[in-house]
TrEMBL record:
Catalytic activity: Thiol-dependent hydrolysis of ester, thioester, amide, peptide and isopeptide bonds formed by the C-terminal Gly of ubiquitin (a 76-residue protein attached to proteins as an intracellular targeting signal)
Lineage: Eukaryota, Metazoa, Chordata, Craniata, Vertebrata
Biased composition (Basic and acidic residues): 272-282
Assigned keywords, A-Z: Hydrolase, Nucleus, Protease, Repeat, Thiol protease, Transcription, Transcription regulation, Ubl conjugation pathway
Compartment list: Nucleus
Active-site residue numbers: C14 (nucleophile), C14, H119, H119 (proton acceptor), N134
Glycosyltransferase listed as a keyword: no
Limits of the Josephin domain: 1-180
Protein name: ubiquitinyl hydrolase 1
Any one Gene Ontology molecular-function term assigned to this protein's record: cysteine-type deubiquitinase activity
GO biological process: protein deubiquitination; proteolysis
Organism: Cyprinus carpio carpio
Any one GO CC term of the record: nucleus
Amino acid sequence: MESIFHEKQEGSLCAQHCLNNLLQGEYFSPVELSSIAQQLDEEERMRMAEGGVQTEEYRTFLQQPSGNMDDSGFFSIRVISSALGVWGLELVLFNSREYQQLRIDPIHEKAFICNYKEHWFTVRKLGQQWFNLNSLLTGPELISDTYLALFLAQLQQEGYSIFVIRGSLPECEADQILRIMQVEQQQRPKLIGEDEAQRCTDRHHMTYRTRQESSPSCCAVGGSDPSGAVTAGSSHESGSSEEAVLTAEELRRRRQVYFDRQQAQHSSSAGGEKDSGTKPSQ
């Protein structure tokens, strides 16, 4: 899948990643999308000014932040639609009555843009195969024809808005290659956060094993290192020699449990010493 262009998440620039993954190239930058957003803001201001620049509505409008972008890198559907309009592409709401009446099988479309809250991502057909090009993934995810409709239905149940891309997408290398060959995916890509968490966990396991080999007597009782205690605990509880695979959230939770236990032991010890020092003699 090396020929497939896939921009990974940077900051909150998912709208940029969504567009570039759809068009299969670095077609839009944050600066260019900001320019489109500012143009839309100006058009809105001019329409509001038609009612009079001294009106309360106009003054209130000027005090409000832009609805087309913000400092985090978010861009509205209007910005995305205007950006696609440069390429002669249009957005059609997937669950609209007009589109549903057409009864088009999703596999016969070219691409979809999906949005939930402030996250955007592309699902596109390249050659004869469909791919989830979500910028939060470590790479493109292959979607079979039989699973595509179910995948879109699942997104809708989760609250996503889905838009069908209409028009001719620009030619790209991946589309040309995948027209004459098909790819297989042995392992689905992970979310970027999960992949990083796994790498951190792997590094942590290696560090712990090194400490265990160099200081077995210390590690036998969990040691004084909170990270080592987490790994040792998960290993002994499982009763297996296999290393436990922890998510970042689970790792944080277990570390917090360890710290709470250490704090409780410290408080109990301090309380015991205080009681023994004030207890009257018999």
